Amino acid sequence: MMMHVHLHHRLPRDFYLQTTERVAEVLLGCLLVRVLADGRILSGRISETEAYTGEWDTACHTSSGKTARNRVMYGPGGLVYVYFVYGLHNMLNVVTEGEEKGCAVLIRGVIPEEGTETMIMNRGGKMPLTDGPARLTQAFQITRKHNGLDLVTSQDMFITPGYREASSAVIRTPRIGIDYAAEKDKKALLRFVLRTGSD
């Protein structure tokens, strides 16, 4: 039953076509839903994002133009861009804006809701569970095979409107781990963190 509710309420294409900065902020509180091959559902409320704003952003994967690795980022908003770092970790990004823009939002953390036992198993019992982009993809079984998936039409993964507590606040900070970027981009307040009343 629950699954149909989720599918029916997924975020539409127009949501992802907004400016990257806007999408990064309004994704906070939305629900990332992953349907496993056996039908089990994993979900979590998005709690941390970073905006990567295209070829002019030296922290962005498209800053040196289109490549085989980043070509999904030039597709329409709503596609999933998964890249592999340090030979170890998958990172989940949501492509934003129109085609050929080369922008995306990195999902850095979620607050688990459904399927926590499976997430714990996927993480080998390690904590924190989904706080951090590499932990999140491990917990949700998100890999490079999801690169190019369309969140608007896919049965395997999608995002639905969520909620924010009245007492929650959005905190903006510089992005993490972008020492290679130009000073202006290192300082840009493009990381968005959901602080809930319970924090």
Give an overview in words.
The protein has helices spanning 2-8, 13-16, 20-26, 116-122, 133-139, 183-187; strands at residues 31-35, 41-52, 80-85, 89-96, 103-114, 157-160, 169-173, 191-195. It is α+β, with helices and mostly antiparallel strands and 199 residues long. Strands 1, 2, 3, 4, 5, 6, 7 and 8 form an eight-stranded antiparallel β-sheet that branches. The longest helix is centred in the first third of the chain and has 7 residues, at 2-8. It is globular.
Brief descriptors of the model:
19% helix, 199 residues, 6 helices, 3-methyladenine DNA Glycosylase, Chain A, alpha+beta, 8-stranded antiparallel beta sheet
Work out the number of β strands: 8
Major β-sheet, in short?
8 strands, antiparallel
> Termini separation (Å)?
32 Å
Question: Would you tell me which CATH topology applies?
Answer: 3-methyladenine DNA Glycosylase, Chain A
Kindly report the name of the CATH homologous superfamily.
Methylpurine-DNA glycosylase (MPG)
Total individual domains:
1
Q: Count of helical segments? A: 6
> Which regions are unreliable across 5 or more consecutive residues at pLDDT < 50?
1-5
N-to-C SSE string, H for helix and E for strand: HHHEEEEEHHEEHE
